[in-house]
Design brief:
This protein has 98 residues and is mainly β. It is 6% helix and 63% strand. It contains one helix and eight strands; from the N terminus they run βββαβββββ. The protein is globular and about 35 Å long.
Length: 98
C-alpha cells in the first residue's frame, strides 16, 4: 500500500514536536512481513518502505510491531540498524489516497 512515513526518532531519541513539523516525510510502498535477518541471526517481522522501483527508501525496521491502526493512520515501532548500531525507531504512517 502507498503511504507517507514520518520518523519519530533520531538514533533512538524522540524528535521534539517543533522539529517534527518541519521534518521531511518519506513516500513509498509499505511492506510488512517475515524475513530472515543476517544481522539478528533469526527470522523476524520487518517493515520496509520501498520506492516504485523497489529500492529501499528507509532502513528496514526489524522486530516491527504495529502499535495502532485506525482511519488510515498507523504507528509502527521497531529497531533500525545504522552503521552497525541498533536504534529504536517509530514510524507515523499515513495511508495515501487511492
Amino acid at each position: 500500500m502507498k503511504v507517507e512515513v514520518q520518523l519519530l526518532n533520531d538514533k533512538g531519541r524522540a524528535v521534539p514536536v517543533a522539529q517534527l513539523r518541519a521534518q521531511k516525510r518519506f513516500t513509498g510502498i509499505l511492506a510488512i512481513g517475515e524475513v530472515r535477518s543476517t544481522e539478528f541471526g533469526r527470522t523476524l517481522i520487518a517493515a520496509n518502505l520501498f520506492s516504485a522501483e523497489k529500492e529501499a527508501v528507509l532502513p528496514m525496521l526489524h522486530d516491527a510491531v504495529v502499535l495502532r491502526y485506525e482511519s488510515g493512520r498507523a504507528r509502527i515501532r521497531g529497531v533500525e540498524v545504522l552503521n552497525g548500531a541498533q536504534h529504536g525507531q517509530t514510524w507515523d504512517v499515513k495511508v495515501a489516497p487511492c
